[in-house]
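HUMAN: I'm a chemist; might I ask for a sequence paired with its structure tokens?

ASSISTANT:
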Amino acid sequence: MVTALAARALSWGIVGYGWVARDYAAPAILAAGHAVRAVCDPSPAARGAALATLSPAGGAHADLGPLLADPEVDAIYVATPNHLHRAAVEAAAAAGKAVLCEKPMAATIADAEAMVAAASRGGILLGTAFDQRHHPAHAAMRAAVAAGLIGTPTVIRIAYACWLGPDWSVTGEGDNWRADPARAGGGALMDLAPHGIDLANYLLGEPIEEIAALTQRRVQPYPVDDGALLIGRTGGGALVQLHVAYNCPDALPRRRLEILGSAGQLLAENTMGQDAGGRVTHTDALGRSRSLPVPDAEASPFARQMAAFARALANGDRETFSTSRDLHTMRLLHRAYTGDPACR
């Protein structure tokens, strides 16, 4: 299978055709030179919207069975509400299909652990869709840190916020499952903090080992947190600060990533998110600032992610998409919510 996949583009099946799949993942699959072979979603409107991206022989299904039974489907992209990730991944693994699953990995640690076990039994590649790892600006920042441009990294500060009202909807279906604790597993912390936790690991090459958080339910009238502040420390001693929120008006500055080091600073503005672009500034220890060059600056992070998954599937790489790293992120999220240091 590896040899065959290396010789051709992937044919993808998409499970859950909401706004992220429709506006970002499906176009990214096509931009990466792959095909959308099949889509599964219980909503007739979602299946209708998917028809425009399907390959000529593809199909839009209400149930998962026909998609998994299609021998032409090489990989599955799962973009359902969080509480449905486990069932989709277990079924795909049993069918021998590689899976790229949206973050957070699952709604609970138990579900995440079951997903990893299913992937191991099925011998499949399972990755979590941390598209921020594939943003061109973040790749340039990682390279700059590794080259010593800012000396020893001491602190990462991230602000990643948005406005998510109780009736928020992109597709117009009026079902804001992200505000439902049973389906989402949490609120702003559960939805947005995984990106920052994973990104700190990516930028510094070392994971967060200690973490704590304060959450709030201050503006939005739903039963999940609408904001959170997290602090963490990596194994090497770098500090990490994250502010995530569902209560920040979208017109305000709300997407900022800073890496401070012993010899300078890297500051990225408007790079956190689904789109390419933004800007990165390097300031040295004397206070002199310049733009940091970003190769392939306008490339879609989603398209780069899909291409990276295809390469990992072809060459057997299990580091770019690592279940052990993603499970560690899930445990950090749980510790941030509960304060339970035993969850490691």
Remarks:
- The CA atoms of residues 281 and 292 lie 5 Å apart.
- Confidence is low (pLDDT under 50) at residues 1-7.
- The first strand starts at residue 11 and ends at 15.
- The two ends are 35 Å apart (CA to CA).
